[in-house]
Amino acid sequence: MELSELSWSIRGTLGRKLLEKAQQYDDVVDFTHGDPDIPTPDGI
Questions:
Q1: Cβ-count burial of 36 within 10 angstroms (0-12 exposed, 13-18 middle, 19+ buried)?
Q2: Are 28 and 22 in contact (CB under 8 A)?
Q3: Dihedral, CA atoms, 35, 38, 40, 41, nearest 10 degrees?
Q4: How far apart are CA 35 and CA 31, in angstroms?
Q5: CA distance to 3, 5, 13, 21, per residue, from 25 (Å)
């Protein structure tokens, strides 16, 4: 399979770069998941 020259110029998004960086560590906590439709409890 041959890739076009254009495909080599596509760069990863910032989110992708951060995920790749986080994989280098074993103590990273991912806070990106959640439910934005549910209000955060007052105690948090």
A1: exposed
A2: yes
A3: -130
A4: 11
A5: 32, 33, 20, 8
pTM exceeds 0.85 for this model: no
State the Cα–Cα distance between residues 22 and 9, nearest whole angstrom.
Answer: 24
Give, as one character, the DSSP assignment of residue 23. Answer: T
Q: Where are the alpha helices (DSSP H) in 1-44?
A: 14-22
Per-residue pLDDT of the chain (44 residues; tens, 9 = 90+): 677 888 778 888 888 888 889 999 998 887 777 777 788 888 88
